[in-house]
Task: inverse folding
C-alpha cells in the first residue's frame, strides 16, 4: 500500500497543479493598469513639483517649514510660485504661527515669499487672522500684511489696515504681533 501511495500522491499533486494552470483565466495585455494619466508634453512645457516641502532656520533661530500642493520653478519672466501653500513658523520663545494660502510667489531679491488668495494666519496666542496678502521673510522671523486684516483673538474682534509679526526690539527673544493703520477693536470682556 505504501508503494502505491508513493506513486499515487505525486501524480495527484501534478494533476492538481496542471489544472491550476490550464483552467486559469488568460491575461489580456490590453487591460494593463495605466501608470500615470498625465500629459507628458504639458509637463515638459510647464515643469512643476508635487507636494514639495522646505524646512530651515532663520537667522534669529526660528524654525520655518513650507509645504505646498504644487510648486513651479522660476521661468522666463515669471517668478517661482506655489499653490495650496502652508507655512509654519516656530519661534524660539515657544510661539507657533501657521499660514494657509491659495497661492504664493517667491521674491528672491527681497528674500521673502508673498502669500495671497485668502490667507489665514493662526497664532499660538489665540489669534486667527484673515487677509488677502502676507509677505513672509525667509532669512529672519517676520510676517507683514499691507492690506486689510480681520482678526479674532483673546481681546475680541479686530480690523486693521495691516499687521506685522516680528521680533521685539525691547525684549530680545520675544515676538510681537502689531496691528496698524486704522485699528478697530470690538472688546469682549470676560470670555
Result:
Amino acid at each position: 500500500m505504501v508503494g502505491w501511495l508513493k506513486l499515487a500522491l505525486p501524480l495527484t499533486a501534478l494533476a492538481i497543479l496542471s489544472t491550476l494552470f490550464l483552467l486559469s483565466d488568460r491575461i489580456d495585455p490590453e487591460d494593463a493598469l495605466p501608470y500615470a494619466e498625465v500629459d507628458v508634453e504639458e509637463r515638459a512645457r510647464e515643469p512643476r513639483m508635487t507636494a514639495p516641502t522646505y524646512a530651515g532656520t532663520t537667522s534669529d533661530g526660528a524654525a520655518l517649514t513650507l509645504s505646498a500642493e504644487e510648486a513651479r520653478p522660476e521661468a522666463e519672466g515669471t517668478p517661482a510660485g506655489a499653490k495650496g501653500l502652508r507655512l509654519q513658523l516656530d519661534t524660539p520663545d515657544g510661539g507657533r504661527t501657521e499660514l494657509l494660502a491659495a497661492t504664493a510667489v517667491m521674491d528672491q531679491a527681497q528674500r521673502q515669499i508673498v502669500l495671497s488668495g485668502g490667507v489665514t494666519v493662526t497664532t499660538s496666542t489665540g489669534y486667527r487672522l484673515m487677509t488677502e496678502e502676507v509677505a513672509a521673510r525667509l532669512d529672519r522671523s517676520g510676517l507683514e500684511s499691507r492690506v486689510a486684516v480681520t482678526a479674532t483673538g483673546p481681546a475680541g474682534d479686530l480690523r486693521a489696515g495691516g499687521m506685522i509679526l516680528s521680533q521685539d526690539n525691547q525684549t530680545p527673544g520675544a515676538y510681537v504681533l502689531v496691528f496698524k493703520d486704522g485699528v478697530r477693536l470690538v472688546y469682549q470682556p470676560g470670555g
Notes: The CA atoms of residues 64 and 89 lie 5 Å apart. The mean pLDDT is 86.
